[in-house]
Structure formats: structure tokens, C-alpha cells
TrEMBL record:
Segments forming domain AAA: 1-180
Record's signal peptide: none
InterPro entries associated with the record: AAA_dom (IPR025669), DNA_Partitioning_ATPase (IPR050678), P-loop_NTPase (IPR027417)
One Pfam family here: AAA_31
Record-given protein name: Chromosome partitioning protein
Organism (species): Methylomonas lenta
Highest taxon above the source species: Bacteria
Length: 265
């Protein structure tokens, strides 16, 4: 099983939308067995996946994967499973400092017990530099960071890499040397001169962090098809609208590149 975490401390950049749509892509298009874990108390990923009713929803709440020793045998027997976010318990975890080590260890041990049952595990995280995000980064093989093309987000790339506790480089140097950054993925991209300039800056200064494609770097345009698909819990390509087909034509090669980097195709 390959584990991918969606992480960026910036809110609203598309972590949950990409997590959900990637899970659909892996399961429905690539026919992979997919486990998706929602560690965000906002529960956006859980809501979309529940609404879509394509995946089995586990009885087990996500906080339990960190707070207790769960065996994979206790997880619903299906090829596409959501472990949904709870709210209060997930929010309490940061304050339980004495248990932080065991949170990460429990999650790590749980993932080992489902290693043979799933091909891919996707973890969606909350936009706070806390123990949930840290645990996810410590147990994952790959990290993908959607960003928006505004100055604030570009300034935030330093933190994404070098933040004291959850910076990707910090974690690679200490707790998880095997963590591989798939890349930063500009999302909600608009054809304005401002965004074009920011993309050019990004390509100049952070080319190594972007995801190379045959025709430049990976990016996802702003499209009404994304929130509509998320609200309906549908894969974008099943939205049944021109906007959905157009968005998917652009997103699919990006997802294929991510799957290739992860060695899933
Ligand atoms: N490419 C896109 N085009 C248009 N809307 C998008 C796109 N990507 C995401 N969105 C929408 O933007 C909003 C924020 O996205 P999302 O919830 O995925 O961000 P997030 O990073 O998970 O946020 P948070 O940090 O709060 O968890 C959602 O309404 C989502 O549907
Ligand atoms: Mg989210």
C-alpha cells in the first residue's frame, strides 16, 4: 500500500477536493483498492464521500486510529473504504501532549495491518500545524500540497518546507526520511495577469517543487465543476455537464502523473 497525505497549512486550497477526486480516480478509473482517511474535524472529505455513496463508510471514526490500537481486521471489508472524521475527539488531540507519540505510533501500526488489503491510502488533513497533520506526515510515503497562486500562498511555501514541527524538509530530516514530496500543485488557477505572473515566479524559483508534465507544470484551473462535484459527492467526470468534462480533461493527466510518481500505474 502506498500512502499519500494532502497537506498545506493554508485553508481552502483544495486539499479535500483533490483527496476525494483522487480517491475516485484511483478506485473507479485505475481499479485500485482505496482507503481514505479524513483527519479534518471540518469533515469536508467525509461529507463528499458519504453523499456519493460509492465507498463503504467505516463505523470507526478517524480519531480512533490515533487514540487506540486498531487492527485492520476491524475495518469494513470493501475495496473502497472511508474512515470518516469525527469532530470533538479530533479537536481534543492537540491538547493531549503526553499522548502525541502514541498517536503517531498507533496510526503507523494500523496502516501496517491494512498494507495488503489496500493499494492506496489517501489521508486528508486539517489546515493546522498540529499532531494530526504531523502524524499523517510521519506515516506517509508521499505528500502532495495544493496551493493557490496568491502572494501569501507563495510566501507560505517556506513554511510548508521548513516549519519547525511539520515542515516537509524537517520531517524528512528527522521522523520520516522516506517521505517524498510529489509536489506543490497550483489549484483554483485563474487566467489573470496577476496569477500568470505568480505562476511564472513559482516556475522560476521553485521549479523543483512543481510537478513536471509534458507541457509544463501541473496545475488545476478554477472550475465550477469542482465544488459541484464535491457537493454531489460525484467524480468530476460523472457530473454530466460540459464544465465537468472540460475540468476532467485537464485534471486527469495531472492525476495520472501523481499515480505514476507513486508507482501505482
Ligand atoms: N479547481 C477548483 N475550482 C473551483 N473550486 C475549487 C477548486 N478546487 C477546490 N475548489 C473549491 O474550493 C473550496 C475549498 O476547497 P477544499 O475544501 O478542497 O480546500 P481545503 O484545502 O481542503 O480547505 P481546508 O484547509 O479548509 O480543509 C471548496 O468549495 C472546493 O470545492
Ligand atoms: Mg479540507
Amino acid at each position: 500500500m502506498k500512502t499519500l497525505v494532502l497537506a498545506n497549512q493554508k485553508g481552502g486550497v483544495g486539499k479535500s477536493a483533490v483527496a476525494v477526486q483522487l480517491a475516485y480516480f484511483f478506485n473507479l478509473v485505475l481499479k485500485k483498492r482505496v482507503l481514505i482517511i479524513d483527519l479534518d474535524h471540518q469533515r469536508n472529505t467525509s461529507k463528499a464521500i458519504r453523499t456519493g455513496a460509492i465507498a463503504a463508510v467505516s463505523q470507526l471514526a478517524a480519531s480512533r486510529l490515533l487514540s487506540t490500537k486498531i487492527d485492520g481486521g476491524d475495518i469494513e471489508n470493501a475495496e473502497f473504504v472511508l474512515i470518516p472524521a469525527d469532530n470533538a475527539e479530533l479537536l481534543k488531540m492537540e491538547k493531549q501532549a503526553d499522548k502525541h507519540n502514541s498517536f503517531a505510533t498507533n496510526l503507523h501500526t494500523f496502516l501496517k495491518t491494512v498494507d495488503e488489503r489496500f493499494d492506496v491510502c489517501i489521508i486528508d488533513t486539517n489546515p493546522n500545524p498540529d499532531i494530526r497533520q504531523l502524524s499523517a506526515l510521519v506515516v506517509s510515503n508521499y505528500v502532495l500540497s495544493p496551493i493557490q497562486l496568491n502572494q501569501e500562498a507563495i510566501d507560505g511555501i517556506g513554511d510548508l518546507l521548513n516549519h519547525d514541527s511539520i515542515g516537509i524538509r524537517k520531517i524528512q530530516a528527522t521522523l520520516n526520511p522516506t517521505l517524498q514530496l510529489i509536489g506543490i500543485l497550483p489549484n483554483l488557477v485563474e487566467p489573470t495577469p496577476f496569477q500568470r505572473d505568480n505562476f511564472r515566479d513559482l516556475s522560476t524559483h521553485f521549479a523543483k517543487l512543481l510537478i513536471p508534465m509534458t507541457n509544463g507544470f501541473a496545475a488545476i484551473k478554477k472550475s465550477t465543476a469542482v465544488p459541484e462535484s464535491q457537493a454531489a459527492g460525484l467524480p468530476i467526470w460523472k457530473l454530466g455537464k460540459t464544465s465537468g468534462r472540460d475540468a476532467w480533461a485537464q485534471i486527469r493527466p495531472v492525476f495520472e502523473q501523481i499515480a505514476t510518481t507513486m508507482g501505482v500505474i
